[in-house]
Amino acid sequence: MTKLSAIVRWCAIALLLVSISTMVKGQERWVATWLTSPTGLPDTGILLQWNEAHPKLAWKSPSLIRGTFRYRLRVAKGGEKLRLTVSNSYRQAALVVGAMSVGLAASHLDVKAGTLKEVRFNGGSGIQIPAGTSATSDPVNLPVADDSDLIVSISFPDGVFVVEFPPRPDGPLVQIAEGTDQTGELTLHHQRSADVRSLLSEVDVLTSHCRHVVVALGDSITEGMVSNGERGWPGALARRLASNDISVVNAGIGGNRLLSPVGPIQQAAWARINDDVLTIPGISHIILLEGINDIGNGDADWEPFGHIPSVSAADLISAYRQIILKAHLHSIKVIGGTILPFEGAFYYSAEKESVRQAVNEWIRTSGEFDGVIDFESVVRDPTTPGRIRPDLASDPLHPNGKGYQLMGEAISVNLFD
């Protein structure tokens, strides 16, 4: 072999390797772009006991609604195709999806003309989902951009039991058209707004432009209010990271705790991490901001669940360590968020505040997390460190829209390298 031919051969090999590397780096894959954690409905007997024991915290009785549910949601990362997941977290009954559609959002909950697509399951227009399971749709050919809004409509011909509360301006954007299948309509007719938890639990996109998927795991401070379409601090972070080819999705549930169930329905975060987090397509990082409800609800009687013992810093640290261990077994990094101030909240005490401070000190200094976000320092009042800054507070426990925005914008992009 001549020297020239050898050079040509090695150049060809080098070009081939570069080509293969480029193909791998730009390979399309399914990643999560929107998420909400399902909670289902409480057992009727437990619900009655709960309401009798806690009249001020009483849940409305579930009602059966037949018709079309329409949701507006904001995706983190765009892609060429979508797939959507509906979860049936009810304990006993199957959930029948009669028809489903998705399109790009126009104003309010209207679909942009020319974008409405039928969503099919295994080639059919609907599906029956057994209790405690979920169903993921066939791919839908609907290109969507980063940080854009979708309209998803689902028809439940046999009805679905929901716990309904009065609509809130900062609540989820949901409309219900009772008694009809309007999934093929750009605008719902004879509809009403409602505050119900979404039965749509996940949206994935097929894309070659997403390096990481970050899952925000927490309670109501993570679930957040909806402000200008942006959902809490994870929504603010998603907006910032989209240009870095990173998707951020929200696995927060109001009232959630690390160590024990709360209210009539919820699993603790330690228990739900396997189903709600580790199975999310493309997951690479978890941001864990949870523990204030464990601390605050300690040493209380919550019938019919009995007495909740006080929670120590060691108890919470043990839970954090188990979540870190589970995530690391899947090569997922866990970033710890410091717990926000809560002086003035209904379950505040000086003893509980000392637990919060001890936990935050461990989060900051232990080195056991793969990174730390000091959320406390972002929102605390410098004149009264035990409280959220007044201009950032919705109440003594929760930030307002401005506070959530500051939390999302204070997170270093370098944590996700």
Shape: globular
Strand content: 25-35%
Overall SS class? alpha+beta
**CATH architectural group of the largest domain:** 3-Layer(aba) Sandwich
Strand order of the largest sheet: 6-5-9-2-10-11
CATH fold-level topology of the largest domain: Rossmann fold
* CATH class bucket of the largest domain: Alpha Beta
Number of helices: 10
Low-pLDDT residue spans: 11-24
Q: How many angstroms does the end-to-end distance come to?
A: 45 Å
Characterize the main sheet. Answer: 6 strands, antiparallel
- β-strand number: 21
**Rg measurement, Å:** 23 Å
Return the average pLDDT rounded to an integer: 89
Q: Can you identify the CATH superfamily of the largest domain? A: SGNH hydrolase
Domains counted in the coordinates: how many? 2
Residue share in helix: 25-40%
Describe the structure.
The chain has helices at residues 3-25, 44-53, 220-223, 232-241, 269-276, 292-296, 313-329, 350-365, 375-379, 401-409, and strands spanning 29-35, 63-74, 81-88, 95-97, 99-104, 117-118, 127-129, 133-136, 149-162, 174-178, 192-193, 200-207, 212-218, 226-227, 230-231, 246-252, 283-289, 300-301, 307-308, 333-337, 371-373. By secondary structure, the chain is an alpha+beta fold. It has two domains: 63-201; 211-416, Rossmann fold (3-Layer(aba) Sandwich), CATH 3.40.50. Strands 6-5-9-2-10-11 form a six-stranded antiparallel sheet, with no helix packed on it. It is globular, with a radius of gyration of 23 Å. The two termini are 45 Å apart. The model is unreliable at 11-24 (pLDDT under 50).
